[in-house]
Amino acid sequence: MPYSISWKPDGIIWTFHHILTNDDVIQANLDIYGDPRFDDLRYQIVDISDVRQFHVTNEVFDEAAAMDEAAALSNPNLVVAVVATSEEAVNVAETYEAAMNSSRWKVRTFCSMKEAEQWVRSSR
Fold this sequence. Notes:
Layout lengths: L2 E5 L3 E11 H12 L9 E13 L2 H17 L4 E5 L3 H13 L6 E5 L2 H11 L1
Parallel strand pairs: 2-3, 3-4, 4-5
Antiparallel strand pairs: 1-2
């Protein structure tokens, strides 16, 4: 599986592996938005630090952002931390962050899981 989802008491951690595709981005969103636990989430950590190849278009970020905007109607208080270490991963994270610029959700990019977790704790 190209990604895993770890459910926590009030959040989730998505960990993407090796290759990230358009389908992975959309399916990962669908996997949580259809889950009854979604409304209780307060944070998401999206870890793309293990991704080596990105096969994702700007259009899919716009589509994911639109899905996230719709999800924000039922859960407006989410914070989203993206963990990105390579230059390409940081570019991907910044593209998503820009697509979410008008969202009610706060989105930030970090270079380590530790920093992302600290920000999530301080933002809740």
